[in-house]
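ok so i was messing around last nite and threw this chain in just to see what happens. nothing serious, just curious
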Amino acid sequence: MNTGFSVTHYLTLIKKEVAEAAKYQGIRTNSYYSWFYGPVTSLISEYTIATGDKRYLKDLKRITMEIVEGQSPVGSWGHKFVDPNGRLRGYGMMNAPGVPLTISLVLARKAGVHNSQIDTAIDKSCKLLRFYVGKGAIPYGDHHPWTQTHDDNGKNGMAAVLYNLLNDAEAAEYFSRMSVATHSDEREMGHTGNFFNIQWAMSSVALSGPQASGAWMREYAWYYDLARRWDGGFIHQGAPKDQKDAYRNWDTTGVMALAYAQSKRQIYLSGKKSQVIPQMSSSEAECVVALGRGWTKKNKDKFLSERSDKALVLSLRSWSPVMRIRAASELAKRNPKDLRPYLELLDSSDLYASLGVCELMIHLRGRAQIAVPYLIRLLDHPDLWLRIKAADALAAIGQASIKAVPKMLKMFAETSPEDPRGMLQRYLCFALFSRRTGLLGKSLKGVDKKELLKAVQLGLKNDDGRARSNLGSVYENIEFEELKPILPAIIEAIETPAPSGIMFADGIRTAGLKLLCTHKVDVGLGLTVDYIKNQKKHGSQKRIKELIKYVDSYGAHAKKYIANLQDIIEYFENEEEGFPKHLSKQKAQDLKDLIERIKKSNDSPSLKSLKTIA
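result:
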């Protein structure tokens, strides 16, 4: 891109921007500052490395340590950094700012900022994100892999750059290949718009080599051409629809320049560190690009409808988890009568084939009963993801899989270095206890209660709040007397929120409170009053109404907590931050109404003492 300006001209502009970036103090603002820390840190780091100018190292260290100290216990960041309680607020973990933050820490380390806490933060984040290798795209937050498309608004592209910087060839190659498969409609999707899908496209595609870049650009160069303005700049286009996205009218000249600069490889974000992963041949690149060709959001249910069964079986064996799921969905629509050929693949040494057939069984649901013995055997497979998908398939098949329950309950206790976050346990929480799809979500008939309680007690410590919340179905489907041995664990899960899955972490806490209050356990009242103040803010204006019912149910016993409730009213009216003021006042009024009812109550239900029942 020849603009007529000299290198000196641009370097002057860059120095000005770096000097301004070095002053950044996002944590002292009320903005969604996590989104800015990554780009700010990366800019200062790349400048320091490229020029050798060390004058901003002190500022870089300060900014970097603010990122490190703002990381959650599991290695993530959200719209903002962690609260004083060590938990993220609002939506919890968000990978769109989180992956660039990790990249920026790696770049800061290369620029000369050295600290063992930085190393630990990078390691935690990378272990968290690496789980998604081979499973789909890195999702919005601490969720299941995204499998609708080959990338989820650029997060695979970000990850390819990250793991390339860290010399992790396996992870970098996987995420780069997923990026190469993402173009056209797949590239034009994204939460609030596809800005990040475009920003991180070429940085990750180019890592797979010039043939990959060429094949991808032949497929999608038109998008870049359409974004070019008459003055040589570029503007964000968004998806082709009437409704504008959140990035409308953004100047994306820098984003496009980063794409076109990949061949120069002068900074790390434009491929300075290359050749970490195998470079694709021309034929390989064409095959990967072809994976995303022709798919659109409108035709997604018919995308593979014209392919033969034989072709679909080949796609079941694809390295791409997205293609495996698409093929499984289409094959299931054809309702295959003879599943024996698929069972042979399920039992084969071809990992991709086994995973693909698991997806087919998930889509066939109850029609796949014949696969149950094969799937139970896979619960002992050495590959973690295949074990998880086998459990998912058993849950999807339904009642015919009930014989797998004893084995699945025992699996809650399994740990391994391969699974530092207890992901096997997390998925088992869904497969067994989801109220909608779990094998035990609606009934515990015939289940060994001793083994059940062992599993529940372990699951209540899982670091994912959504996984924990599935266990609430057990509270509803078992007699209270049978739960007594694990009441301490139930109470701990109320008092101590999960370190991740914040968006859904309230489920198991409110389920535990409901259990205690329904059976009038004495500690339930105080725990509920405490939770009214300390609950997750998101949705609290609705949740508080249910909590108030629990307090109400204790009648006159609640009078001793009136002072506590008045303190909470003061907090809602004058101190609560990060929540709409009118909703805080609404909560305060709800509590004022509660206090009036408590004062008038003469009802004193008999209470159970935790000391005597647990």
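not much to say yet. The CA atoms of residues 394 and 401 lie 5 Å apart.
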